Amino acid sequence: MIRYRRPKQDDTVIIGLIETQLVPLSHMPESVLNQIKKEMPRRLAHGVTLVACPDYDSDPVGFVHYMLHGDLLYIDMLAIAPNAQRKRWGNMLMDRAERFALSRGCKRAKVAVDAGNAVGLSFYQKMDYSIARYLTQSFCYELEKQLS
């Protein structure tokens, strides 16, 4: 099931997923990564975080964090635990985020994927996102999609 994040129950798991699934793919210097880790609770408080879990009271196996800016849905982070990958959790989280954004008038979506994240890049391309540009400063691909 997909539900909204419950900070007290979910944040330890979410931060663990960030540290094990996202941080190793980043090209940011260690000092920047340490600052981002410190700011993570505040970052999660802005925008919307949905979690995927086997049932309502279970700990999450994955999450998506996103923000709406005018007519833009910005996917900030998506991570799924290794033992839960390839079970459609990512698809369900993205579908829910995109449907929410459409209901709020968003017409397009963006996501940044680290250059070394071939699995993530492939995932978003299968979700109809296309590469818009390469961001050399952050070593990321920016992908876009028209929502309908």
Helical percent range?
Answer: 25-40%
Largest sheet: 7 strands, mixed
Shape descriptor reads globular
Distance between the termini: 23 Å
State Rg.
15 Å
Runs with pLDDT <50, length 5+? none
Q: Largest beta sheet: what is the strand line-up?
A: 1-2-3-4-5-7-6
User: What is the string of SSEs from the N terminus onward?
Assistant: EHHEEEHEHEE
| Mean of pLDDT | 94
> Count of DSSP E strands?
7
Total helix count? 4
Structural class: alpha+beta
Give the DSSP E fraction (strand runs of 2 or more residues).
Answer: 25-35%
Task: Please provide a written account of the structure.
The chain is of the alpha+beta class. It is built from 4 helices and 7 strands. The protein has helices spanning about 5-20, 30-45, 90-105, 120-125, and strands spanning about 1-5, 50, 60-70, 70-80, 110-115, 130-135, 140-145. Strands 1-2-3-4-5-7-6 form a 7-stranded mixed beta sheet. The mean pLDDT is about 95.
Give a topology summary.
Elements: E1 2-4, H1 7-22, H2 30-45, E2 48-52, E3 62-69, E4 72-80, H3 89-103, E5 108-114, H4 118-126, E6 130-135, E7 140-146
Please name the defining characteristics of this protein:
148 residues; 4 helices; 7 strands; globular
Sum this structure up briefly.
By secondary structure, the chain is an alpha+beta fold. Helices cover 38% and strands 30% of the residues.
